[in-house]
Amino acid sequence: MRQFPAFFNLDNASVVVFGGGEEARRKVRLLAATPARITVIVSKIDAGFAEEFAGRITIAPPEHAGPALDVARFAIVANRLDANAEKAITMARQYGVPLNVVDHPELCDFTVPSIIDRGDVVAAIGTNGSAPVLAKSIREKLEALLPKRIGDLAALASRLRPDVKAAITDSKARRRFWETALTGPTADLAYAGDLEGAEAAMRAQLQSGAAAEGIVHIVGAGPGDPELMTLKALRLIQEADIVYYDRLVSDEILSLIRRDADRVPVGKSKGDHSVPQETIHELLIASAQEGKRVVRLKGGDPFIFGRGGEELEAVRAAGVAATVVPGISSALGCAAAAGLPLTHRDHAQSLTFVTGHARAGGVPDLDWVSLARPAQTVVVFMGVGTSATIAEKIIAAGRAPSTPVAVIENGTRDNEIRVFGTLAELPHLIQRAGIKGPALLVIGEVAGLPAEAIAQAFKEHVA
Asked: What are the Sirohaem synthase dimerisation domain coordinates in residue numbering (predicted)?
């Protein structure tokens, strides 16, 4: 680590910026968000510069640089490296002022990092001045992960800190209080914009001396690609004390769970319900009643053939707080990855999701006539084992045997398998590809579009 990260306190501080062009303007925009007094040293200033920062900056000629530097916390040289810039650098050195020279890290005492500003929460990313564009890219990724109102939560903690310190004298107990207060239901209230509710909840927890109540978050993990998770899902698995996860959750997503959180597999596979659904309910409730932050992590979306509704009912019936975080359904994620539009103006004006597996096993009792109607797409979840009967019944109800189908296993993942064919040959497609499931069956004219595109691309390549 060549550079030591630190933050300047700019209350009642003065800073100096040399330059009147675009680079200087960018630096002043950053500084204008602070309480610092800003002096811009310039002989010629760009049009609109002074107007943009009217009331926030003092403009002074180069001969007045000395008095400004004499009281400055730091200085920035933001004009091209010429005789005037060299003179500004020399003067700053003479006054012993920490100095940044834009685009010249070798001349800098400090570099200006890429900044994430969330009020009382500020994050800075630096690259020793060697790759500012990379720092900006990293900042954009981190900005997406930080809740917009995290600064409000930090400000609330700052207001309550004296009260907490007075009420909880033991440092370890105080740390535990903050860990629960800043990552549990209180934090969720603040992130939702209910700062009064967050403060009331935090004060109630402080007054009672009790540990925060547990909560269950039923979270959709999406189809498998970790980049398809929602930001809220990512935040919750990184805050959870314990995660109960399904077999369909990918290893890449599991690796994002907080390292010291307990991880409990409760997944089911065809013919193997090693953890009964009722037992899962009991585990979720028991963990929350112990005061833990619980995540029930489910593949796809928890409310689309994921039994999330049953889990929500059971948890809330036990008096435990619960929330649901949607995920990208495997139907949507897998189809998008395959370039397969589930609706299309020319081919499919409706879309139907069905399960291919009945509650008691076997083929479900579906409205086959409705599923056989033209100009629609039918997506079958959990239909690998019953594919032969599904194809037979839909054809018998009137859908053409030549209707295109697609079968997608492990969609969006490295081990994804896609096969295309017709409704009549559906079970044979699955058998030849060695697909065991779970997989999606897509039935309808849109399933022929990717196959046609692949065939055309092949012909063009051969030609």
From this structure: 149-206
| For helices 387-396 and 426-433, angle between their N-to-C axes, nearest 10 degrees | 160
pLDDT of res. 269? 59
Q: Which residues of the chain have pLDDT under 50?
A: 457-458, 461-463
Structure tokens at 317: 């019936």
d(CA 193, CA 185): 13
Instruction: Give the DSSP H or E segment for 3.
Output: none
Quick one: pLDDT at residue 212? 63
Mode of pairing for the β-strands spanning 242-245 and 114-118: unpaired
Instruction: Supply the DSSP string of 364-411, one letter for each residue.
Output: ----HHHHT-SSEEEEEES-STTHHHHHHHHHHTT--TT-EEEEEEST
C-beta contacts of 170-178 below 8 A and 24+ residues apart: 176/211, 177/205, 177/206
| 391 and 406 part of one domain | yes
Q: Which residues have C-beta within 8 Å of that of residue 324, sequence separation ≥ 6?
A: 217, 218, 219, 302, 303, 308, 312
One domain for residues 375 and 309 = no
In a shared domain, residues 202 and 239 = no
Q: What is the pTM of this model?
A: 0.68
**Domain extent for 166:** 149-208
Domain presence at residue 128: no
pLDDT at 5: 87
> 3-state DSSP call for residue 352?
strand
**Quick check: helix, strand or coil at residue 416?**
coil
Q: Tell me the H-state helices in 103-170.
A: 132-145, 150-167
Rounded Cα gap, residues 90 and 72, in angstroms: 15
Query: How many Cβ atoms sit within 10 Å of the Cβ of residue 124?
Result: 16
- pLDDT, residue 268, reads 65
What's the one-letter identity of residue 389? T
Residue 377 pairs in a beta bridge with: 351
- 230 exposure class (CB count in 10 Å sphere: 0-12, 13-18, 19+): middle
User: By the 8 A CB rule, do 242 and 261 touch?
Assistant: yes
Do 236 and 346 reside in the same domain of the chain? no
Query: Do 55 and 155 have their domain in common?
Result: no
Beta bridge partners of 272: 269
Q: What is the rounded distance in angstroms from the CA atom of residue 106 to the CA atom of residue 217? A: 50
Write out the catalytic residue numbers: 246, 268
Give the number of domains in the chain. 4
Widest pairwise Cα distance in the chain: 92
196 to 155, 186, 325: CA distances (angstroms): 13, 10, 24
